[in-house]
Amino acid sequence: MTARRWLLLAAALLGAALTARLGVWQLDRAAQKIALQTADEVEGARSPLSNTELVGSPLHRRVVLRGVWVADRTVWLDNRPMDGRAGFYVVTPLRLAGRGDAILVERGWVPRDSADRTHLPPLVTPAGEVEVEGRLAATPSRLYELGTGAAGAIRQNLDPAAFAVESGLALLPLTVVQTAPAGVDDGLLRHWPAPDLGLQKHYGYAFQWFALCALIVGLYVWFQLLRPRFHKP
């Protein structure tokens, strides 16, 4: 075998090994996300936590908290669709009963005024102590945003640490995604979308890498082994 053919063989083996490894890596990423989702479902099935059990709480754990809404610090997260309509996610801090701190609560969704996007609909916020049911998340819903974002009632995203400084509230580094009305029917929708694990993306990339691996092997076999036999003088 000539040096050129050895070089082609080495290149083909290297290319096939690399693309196959990348395909396996994508499948491993998908398996990791499935395992993470399973762990989150296990946490979600456990008994809910109360005000006194929030320290070190795992994400996606159910909670039943008591506190008072800090209504004047409500933030409206823009560009959040639900059921095919444009609208806002409503986020209000809840000052926890029996504690000196508060936690952000993603309370639900309201539609946006199609004529004036800065017009905010009426919001029913019960006064006095309420009980809030939900599940824990790291932060309120986030979208891609250039820059640091604007202040005010209507925002694209809400950073809990920055909002704690802005509001003067001692906010926990957690968010509650509310799953039921607190006290009264507040008119908010809570058809929260299921988390997108991106599994189809990983499977698609894996297929592409395995297909490229097969193509490299097929081209080598054809041009270096089969074709020369068919074109012998």
Automatic annotation (TrEMBL):
Native organism: Pelomonas candidula
Keywords (A to Z) from UniProt: Cell membrane, Membrane, Transmembrane, Transmembrane helix
Membrane-spanning residues: 203-223
One Pfam short name: SURF1
Name of protein: SURF1-like protein
Similarity field: Belongs to the SURF1 family.
Membrane topology summary: Multi-pass membrane protein
InterPro entries cross-referenced by the UniProt entry: Surf1/Shy1, Surf1/Surf4
Lineage: superkingdom: Bacteria
Subcellular location as annotated: Cell membrane; Membrane
PROSITE patterns registered for this protein in UniProt: SURF1
Keyword Lipid biosynthesis: no
Primary localisation category: membrane
